[in-house]
Structures are given as C-alpha cells and as structure tokens.
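Today's session is about reading a structure prediction critically. Students often jump straight to the picture, but the first step is always the sequence itself: look for stretches that repeat, for charged clusters, for runs of hydrophobic residues. Only then move on to the predicted structure, which in these notes is written as discrete structure tokens rather than atom positions. Here is the chain we will use throughout the hour.
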Amino acid sequence: MLVELRDYFAGWALNALMNISDVEAYEDHLEAAKLAYHFADAMIEARKTQESKESVDSTQQLKAAIAEIVKVLDALNGAALSQKGTAQLTEELRQLSAV
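Below is the predicted structure for this chain, in token form.
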C-alpha cells in the first residue's frame, strides 16, 4: 500500500501536534486530524513553490548558457570560419533563448 505524500506529511504533523500539546485538549480528535492535514497542505504548497523557483532558476541558467553559445557562434560567423549550418544553428539557438 502506497502512502500519498499528503497523508505522509499529515502523519508527521499529527505526531508533532501530539508531542507539543495535550492530546486531551482536542475535544474531538477529528479537529486534531483536520489541523494535521492543514499543515500537510501547507507543506505541499511550500514544496510546489520551491520546485517552481528551482525550475525558473534552471530556465534562466539554460538561457544564459545558450546566449554564450550564440556569442561564440557569432564570433565564428564573423571570422568567416563558419558554414551555412553554423548560421542556421545560431538562429535556432537565438529562438530558443527567446522562449
């Protein structure tokens, strides 16, 4: 049986709640469980935000690398060391870096 990430996080949150508060403080244990899932949802959202930020950083790094490649290819084109294929590749890379 596989455990969903949300359930896994909720389990850890519930464990922490029970360790830092009196279990009997919750008249209805359902309220404690709801609070644990609230924390689990927050953890999942924080994880998505971090993954999104990492994705943006990777995209920016890729665009910077493509821009450097384009500079090198432009230099080759300018030095007349290139062939038609290099000019075409340069243009394709420019288009990729603009995405």
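Discussion point for the tutorial: The radius of gyration is 26 Å.
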